[in-house]
Amino acid sequence: MSKTALITGTTGQDGSYLSELLLDKGYKVYGLIRRSSVDTTERIAHFQHHPRFELVEGDITDASCMHKLISGIKPDEVYNLAAMSHVGVSFDQPITTCHIDALGPLHILEAIRQSSPQSKFYQASTSELFGDTKIAPQSELTPMTPNSPYAIAKLYAHHLVGLYRRAYGIFACAGILFNHESPRRGGDFVTRKITKYVAMIENWMDTHDGLGFPRKYLDIPPLFLGNIEAKRDWSHAEDMVRGMWLMMQHSIPDDYVLGSGETHTVKEFLQLAFGSVGIDYKDYVVIDPKFYRPVDVNLLHADPSKAVNILGWKPIVGFGELVNRMVEHDYEILVDKKTRYV
Ligand code: GDR
Question: Which CATH number among 3.30.565.10, 3.40.50.280, 3.30.365.10, 3.40.50.720 corresponds to the domain 4-181+235-258?
Answer without folding.
Answer: 3.40.50.720
